[in-house]
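Support request, please re-run this one:
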Amino acid sequence: MEGIVDLHNYIFFYLILIFIFVFHVFASILEDFYIFLRKPQTEEDLIDLRYSMFEIRNVTHFSTLEVVWTILPGVVLMLIAVPSFALLYAMDEVLNPAITFKAIGHQWFWSYEFSDYAENKAINFDSNMLYDNQLNKGEFRLLSVDHPLVLPINTHIRVIITSMDVLHSWAVPALGVKVDGCPGRLNQAFIFLKREGVFYGQCSELCGVSHGYMPIVVKAVSMKEYLSWINNV
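Re-run finished. Output below.
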């Protein structure tokens, strides 16, 4: 997610330059063609009008300018494309994760499965949204769940996303993760949490009438707290 934010700030610099240039062009057009809105009153006004028409004709049929404003956008696109492709490949890089868990979408809740800690039995639980009458003070409406997903910080984590019924999407904006869960298919994403905290997300695929009621809560904790949670879950 830090890379996505940095790329946004990098591209926004060029957007500001483009906005200033286009605004200048529009302002220049209004200034240059304003003379046609008034009729020449004297011979000097007529001379100014003919001179302005000569200048405008040179600008509207200026081959060098046309070459510049054709090549310059291509150069800007290249400057944007290089870091974009680098980030895209970095996000798809396959790592050797220390922890792997599976996120399974249902109509309309999420279930999670950890299969790295037991030979014959996997750790799995459902995560359902808390309704208004179940909320405690300080909890967010339509975002809080009864069993949040607990993950350790400073650890390479792989999440495998799938679905049991229709298309779902496991999306946590603060982590830069948004991956579709498709029935009969496994998709994966990688997470690296750098600080403790609680991060919220929601299903981002139109999955039915209760689409807006299957939030995601990721609780980032220290490794010690995570191991304690695994032993007690």
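Residues 8 and 84 are 10 Å apart (CA to CA). The chain has two domains: 2-91, 99-232.
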